[in-house]
Amino acid sequence: MLRMVKKVKNLGENRLSADILIVGGGMAGCSLACALAGAGFAVIVLDRVDQSQQTADEFDGRASAIAEAPKKMLEQIRMWRNLGQNFAPILDIRVADGSSPLFLHYDHEDVGEDAFGYMVENRHFRQAVFARLKELNNATYLAPAELKDITYKPEGVQAELSDGRRIKAGLLVGADGRQSQIRQEAGIKLTSWSYHQTGIVLTVDHEIPHHNVAHEHFLAAGPFAILPLPGEGGQNNRSSIVWTEKDELVEDIMALPEKEFAREFNQRFGDFLGEVKFIGPRWTYPLTLQYAETSIAERMVLVGDASHGMHPIAGQGLNMGLRDVAALAEVLTDARRLGLDIGTASVLDQYEQWRRFDNTLMLAMTDGLNRLFSNDIAPLKLARDIGLAAVNKAGPLKKVFMRHAMGSTGNLPRLLKGEAL
Predict the structure, then answer these.
(1) How far is CA 322 from the centre of its chain?
(2) Do the beta carbons of residue 65 and residue 310 sit within 8 Å?
(3) Closest-CA residue to 178 (of 55, 337, 85, 290)
(4) What phi and psi values does residue 371 have, to the nearest 5 degrees?
(5) Could you give phi then psi for residue 273, rounded to 5 degrees?
(6) What is the Cα Rg of the chain in Å?
(7) CA pair distance 293, 379, nearest whole angstrom
């Protein structure tokens, strides 16, 4: 099917016009820009941080799990190919509760040939999505750019930047993260709480290959995740670590000399992957849950962390943002085909209704898992260990959980099924 491709218009005197203005040029925001521009919309993306900083090795150190269904979307919007070999498939998942001999093991072959997901360093994801944006002549990326003011009108929005540039658009998308300026200025209420936990994020090389197995060890202070990454020269000897610790201990742990830090780390990591070497610096991130009362307002919609932020216990944060992207792209594309104004409440409400249940369910699940496992209460520990072992032996139920991990359940947008918009 031929699409009418609309380009960003330069109206002169530092004025630009587009169909959609996306504030926030992170992974969710840029993925949305690629999907929408690929569908023919004229899109402008604003971000405070320059692209070169976002793709630098030292930017934030994080890696993300991308489930099989969102990966199909990234293939469909022609972003995934730009990753090259910078990803590692997750073929098996092993969940253990501390030192208990009982565990839960997921094998991807039990539900088909596809991997559960793929581990990608965030810097490589950004490099790939920025490369795709450059290929789209109806997408404009402005960074560093500071949003000064937004005016909402019945026919659209007008944004003023701190450098004097003005942008007109039919719809504003807030993809600007947990501290979303767009959400705050729209007056949308936010429910949030702290887990009094901090995630220590680092990368390690190890002597023994990981064989594309992801490990989640539940400890009293919180989960300790060992997630496979591609190593140098194609070797499977590198992993991303998300070490959850109580807030009050993190400062002292981070201040430890190298040998003492390694000792603390190895007590949790174990020796099953042989000798370990730290790669690069270490980062810390406070862990919280938050969700917006609504993800839509007048000519405005929220996606990703601007709408919802969850505990990393199941590695679903980016996946939920990409599911938002797929749903919003489909709603807007279908509305345009019908000749509807994409910024009206009747159109945006379809997105809100589509995503509300899925996001609420995942927030509740990750919150419940963290509360259930982040303690050392003996009766509770016994009950959850027996539960892990029971699920491990219950074939049909186990397959349901595995399909959830792959992101292939629920009312999926076309992109998540690998279909074109």
Answers:
(1) 7
(2) no
(3) 290
(4) -70, -35
(5) -110, 15
(6) 22
(7) 36
pLDDT of residue 74: 98
Average pLDDT of span 163-185: 96
Q: Which amino acid is at 220?
A: A
What share of residues in the chain are helix, strand, coil (percent, to 5)? 40, 30, 30
Q: Two tokens at 21?
A: 């203005």
Distances (CA, A) of 56 to 59, 207, 241: 5, 26, 19
Residue indicated by tokens 């023994």: 208
* Tens of pLDDT, residues 243-267: 999 999 999 999 999 999 999 999 9
Please provide the size of the chain in residues: 421
Is residue 140 within 8 A of residue 47, CB to CB? The reply is no
Q: How far is CA 381 from CA 298, 375, 386, 391, in A?
A: 48, 8, 9, 15
pLDDT (tens digit, 9 = 90+) per residue, 348-360?
999 999 999 999 9
CB 294 within 8 A of CB 45: no
Task: Residue 190: name the closest of 203, 177, 202 by CA.
Answer: 177
In the predicted structure, residue 124 carries a pLDDT above the cut 80: yes
**Residue 151 CB burial class (10 angstroms; 0-12, 13-18, ≥19):** exposed
* Cross-strand pairs, 168: 17, 158
Q: What is the DSSP letter of 4?
A: -
To the nearest 10°, report the CA torsion of 182, 188, 189, 192. -30
Q: How far is 4 from 352, CA to CA, in rounded Å?
A: 26
Q: Could you tell me what percent of the chain has a pLDDT over 90?
A: 71
Domains and CATH numbers, the chain: 9-192+289-417 (3.50.50.60)
**Concatenated DSSP letters for 248-292?**
HHHHHHHTS-HHHHHHHHHHHH-STT-SEEEEEEEEEEEEEEEEE
Q: Where are the beta strands (DSSP E) in 110-184?
A: 117-121, 139-142, 147-153, 156-161, 166-174
Task: Confirm if 112 and 232 have CB atoms less than 8 A apart.
Answer: no
- Among 390, 385, 416, CA closest to 96: 385
In the predicted structure, residue 376 carries a pLDDT above the cut 60:
yes
Q: What is the pLDDT of residue 1?
A: 36
Query: What pTM was computed for the model?
Result: 0.92
382 in Cβ contact with 372 (< 8 Å):
no
Q: How far is CA 307 from CA 172, 180, 182, 301, 332, in A?
A: 14, 9, 10, 9, 18
- Per-residue pLDDT tens over the stretch 289-325: 999 999 999 999 999 999 999 999 878 899 999 999 9
